[in-house]
Amino acid sequence: MSRKQGSIIKDVITDILLIGAVNIVFIIIDFSGWDWNIRGGENYELFGIPLQDFFTNVFAPYDIWVFNFVLVSMIVVYVIAIIYRAIRRNI
What we know:
By secondary structure, this protein is mainly alpha-helical. Helix content is 67%, strand content 4%. It has a two-stranded antiparallel ribbon with strand order 1-2. β1 and β2 (49-50) form a beta hairpin. The N and C termini lie close together (12 Å).
């Protein structure tokens, strides 16, 4: 294993551990029953897609839709970062 491959593997494991740590915090908050003080009538949109509906009906590992949005955003950012690192290091 070359030095470049070892550092990429270390970076990927670090990214997975960070996502896992944030998920543990979300799980603790979600199971504790704590809820955001967000009015139910508001529906936030991103590019015309209602975020609250999507993240409570389609993708919903948590009861709080903001946590679902943050989880998906983190996964997308980390996947893009891993692909960028792999391309940049010419693997």
